[in-house]
Amino acid sequence: MGTAVEQISLFDGVFRRLDGPINVASVTQRSPFRYPGGKTWLVPHVRRWLQSLQYFPAEFIEPFAGGGIVSLSVAAEKLADHVTMVELDKQVAAVWDTIINNDEGVWLAERIAEFDISSVTADDLRVLVASEQLSVKERAFLTILKNRTFHGGILAPGSAPIKNGENGKGIASRWYPETLRKRILGIVHMKESIDFIEGDAFDVIESGATSEETVFFIDPPYSVAGKGKGAGRRLYSCFEVDHERLFDVVSKIEGDFLMTYDNADEVKELASRFGFDTELVAMKNTHHAEMNELLIGRNLNWARFTMPPFQNQF
Question: Is the pTM of this model over 0.70?
Answer without folding.
Answer: yes
